[in-house]
Batch of 3 targets.
Target 1
Amino acid sequence: MICLKNSTQGAEILVDYCAGALDAIRTAELEAHLRECASCRNEVEAQREVWNALDVWPLVDVSPSFETRLEARIAEGGKSWWRPTWSRWLPVPAAAAALAAVLLIWNPGLKQPASVSDKIDVKIDVQQVQQALDDMDLLTPVGRAL
């Protein structure tokens, strides 16, 4: 028997075993494996605890109209309450964006900014650049941890 943790069907086998739905041959193989594998034994015990907790959980009666309402919601095709509201307000931001674009493009008083290279005399210090790159490499693991 392959260990439940190493098998792609391990979860299904575990659930079937705990539900008593596993055939006799596979049940015997699994029980032989459980005698040898503490990890799988722990998994079976954890699954049994879940099943025992669910058995103790009180059943709740659903309303008589539950199935009718559920079928109606399914028939709606996943319509959401916010879609009509959202689609009603969509033209407002679209119009604002269009107006802003028009004002930015057609404003004759707007001067083109000078390029950065026209204003700044660029002097590159190689050691300063190397130090900045080293500092960024040092801070990268800290950023990932946050």
Target 2
Amino acid sequence: MGCDIYMHTEVKIEGKWRHWGIPDIDRQYDLFEKLAGVRGSVYNAVVAPKGLPEDSTFETLFDYNICKEEYHSMSWLGAEEIKEVYKWWAIVFPDKYIEGVFGYCMGNGWDDIRDTEVEDVRWVFWFDN
């Protein structure tokens, strides 16, 4: 049985988290392990799963609540943790463009976020089998 990820990108503007998008991520078990220890060891994850943020956006929670009984390893990564994933990705998959997996946040890349009104960014995600 395969494992899938459901991820939402949220951005903070004027002190409020807002839904930005839903990356279309294929089954990448190396990535799942890095994000939450799924299909591998939690010791290799950026951080152990920490549940959904209490202040998740309506869109994220709406998606989660559709089949929440079937989901596991709910978590989220903040901007600094996302940077760690990017660094890891560049080492493990040097020939794969990471924006092709997660999409862009602003402009031509995640670094461009500094030039916008976005105060923070996070990935909120969970898995099913």
Target 3
Amino acid sequence: MKERDGLDRREFTLAAVLAALSGVTITISGCGGSDSPSASSTPTPAPGPTPTPAAGNKSGTISDNHGHTATITGAQLTAGAAVNVELTVGNGHTHSVALSAADVTQIAASTRVSRTSTSEGGHTHTVTFN
């Protein structure tokens, strides 16, 4: 008797139904003629106050925030020296936060460090790095 090379339509349908009923998902996709994604397949980024930091960088959490971000770079963490971290512009102004060499070393070791920013617009923020 000769062996068959594939499933006929009935066997395929039965296998697909059994797979669907067992919780397995069958995905059938086609090839597009373009290297660029279509507008409908481009994911919409989730809203968030802080972008994902680059590898080695650490972002701070900012109290009473209105658009600022604070990031200490991987290079600054590796150097271990004192740094003055400039917060990004938020609500039309900026702040900075001074970190000692000991602070930077603790942040590099993933120890929580909180410092108060400079006062701008009549207020300060507490910036916390983990």
